[in-house]
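input
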Amino acid sequence: MMDYQYCIIGGGIVGLATALDILSRDPGARLVLLEKEDGFGQHQTGHNSGVIHAGIYYQPGSLKAGLCREGAVATKQFCRENGIPFETCGKLIVATSELEMERLAALEERAHRNEIVVEPVSAARLGEIEPHVSGLGALRVPATGIVDYRRICLAMSERLKGLGATLRLGTRATGIVEETSGVMVRTDSGNTLRAERLVACAGLQSDRIARLAGLEATHLVVPFRGEYYTLPASKAGLVGHLIYPVPDPDLPFLGIHLTRMIDGRLTVGPNAVLGFSREGYGKGSVRLADVASMLAFPGFWRMARRNLRSGVDEFRNSLFRRLYLEQCRKYCPSLTLDDLGSPGAGIRAQAILQDGTLVQDFLFLSSPRMLHVCNAPSPAATSAMPIARMIVDELTAA
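output
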């Protein structure tokens, strides 16, 4: 008899939500969750902007659009059920040029097709509702909210304990062997556990966990740092909405924005600069093993060549705060260098294929007894609960 029916590797929000979905379908199942850190949601989940996205940006009818809409509803409901503070403050996407006004019109059409309520905002109206923000026009997305995703992870972990799950913090998987009857997982404590099925939701380490399990992962996770600044307390009430620029369809990231945090802070950022450490959040963090894996991967060089110009721009903005400030002042001209206070960073796990393609959709690797989530695209935190349902559907079908 196996020690467990299910083993989950990864204690971010997707791993925790997957464990909850399994136990909702199979109450009383023997389930163990392994997390190498001493707490839950310590990497991508706990270092993101805390936004509950509405799903306005995604292709109408796409999987990402549907998951985001469902996830926003599910996230807010989970917060209500567990007493977790959240606020539906809304978002303003602000256009500062005629080209961006054209893109904003296309975004409005996309929102309608995605069944997301939006409100066009004129320049005059924008000045009334957000006096410190300037632009030719904007699109208001009322359903966008803010929350602390680590609080959600903690509530999920408590619910899992109540359902009888075994949660092992500070436990790293060092060996994974699939056999006919199950999967053997060796940990850094020297113990080996046995499970009938394994699901890996390892985020920044997902490709390495897949290779550890003997799967042929032909992609590489490349870290992109999202660097931001916290504005001084005197500027915390500068805006009432989240303030976003109009995204450039040729770039994979949304651009620098003003984000209200649920703890009362106001941040500006993030940019998107290549990272040299998958889990190094300090400025200048370098891990030689992470750098070496990038340099040895042909797809990294192909990606770099295609995105050289934008990459150089992001790197310059990272090095020089004045250039970073220029991006912010496009829609919030009152900001000064002194306002760019305490710095911080999150890291996004960007899967890249051999041909240099940035993976923007889900990427799974599977075997008879395992399912590895190798890419869960943004906004995975918002969409975590419906993503978990999809993962367990895949596991059940397999």
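quick obs: DSSP finds eleven helices and 20 strands in the chain.
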